[in-house]
Amino acid sequence: MLKQLLEGRIVTLNCKEMPFQPHVYKMQNGVEVLGIEAKSLQIENDKIVAGYIVDQSVFFKSLHFGQTNIIFSDGDNKAIAQLFVRPSGEIIVEVKPYLGKTEIIPVYYRTILADTAIAIDLKGALKHYLVARHLMKEEDAITEVHYQSMHPNVLKDSFAGNFVLGCHVDGRALQNAEEYALANRQASLKFSKIVIQQQGTRKVIAFHKLLTFMITNHVFMSYEHIPEYVSNNEKSPYQQDRLRLV
Predict the structure, then answer these.
(1) For 8-46, how does the pLDDT look when each residue is reduced to its tens digit (9 = 90+)?
(2) Can you tell me the distance from the alpha carbon of 70 to that of 79, in angstroms, rounded to the nearest whole number?
(3) CA–CA separation, 195 vs 77, rounded Å?
(4) How far is CA 182 from CA 117, 154, 159, in A?
(5) Exposed/middle/buried for 55, CB within 10 Å: 0-12, 13-18, 19+?
(6) Are 99 and 110 within 8 A, CB to CB?
(7) What's the chain's Rg over C-alpha atoms?
(8) pTM above 0.70, yes or no
(9) Under DSSP, is residue 8 helix (H, G, I), strand (E, B) or coil?
């Protein structure tokens, strides 16, 4: 037991003494969740990171441990990124893109386990979207989702047909019990196919589309139906009774 404690302490000390190494982080301009073709960028704290734009790429170089915000601009529109530099020098970036007229799919939370926990309702949000466009029926069920995440800090690429949660803003892995850390965050997912169960039959929907999800902080009780008219921008007269805001 003592040997294990000593070994653990040695590992901890080695991590603490790990020297800061400058890292370079590259983003593809106008593609990786920016929503715009950035012509300039503004760094709130230039002691944390240096940034520059070259051709179709945006580069950041870590200078010091900490976090700062970055504002991208194409001259008319803006996108905002929260950038975190780890003690090792590694860079984590999370972008709030310029969405323009992009259609936003709101995502809500449901209580589970006798209303003692929160679960994110990604499948429910996607199903509302597909039913509204007559790609599936209300009685059908989504069994698989296949997508590439344009924002892996929020939702990583699908695995075995499942939605996969991402990371905290600072890059720490996100556990299922910490789903609410995703509240007020956005994710753009590039779908390739969706599999549904329709009257006991497996049906594959070829679905090549990029969808942007807004993960709200609205929590529904597990037994409540999420009405289609509730949106992230409009207040419903029923919201006061049907939603719990936390």
Answers:
(1) 544 454 455 578 999 999 999 988 888 899 999 999 999
(2) 8
(3) 37
(4) 15, 7, 19
(5) exposed
(6) no
(7) 21
(8) yes
(9) helix
| Residue 204 to residue 206: CA distance in whole angstroms | 6
* Pairwise CA distance, residues 30 & 74, whole Å: 10
Record the tokens describing residue 191, joined without a space. Answer: 């779908």
CA 48 to chain centre: 23
Cβ atoms 65, 54 nearer than 8 A: no
User: The tokens 């509730």 sit on which residue?
Assistant: 230
Element (H, E) at 210: strand 201-220
Q: Are 215 and 104 in contact (CB under 8 A)?
A: no
DSSP 19: P
- Which amino acid, one-letter code, is at 84? F
* Residues 86-133: tens digit of each pLDDT: 999 999 999 988 988 788 999 999 998 876 788 999 999 999 999 999
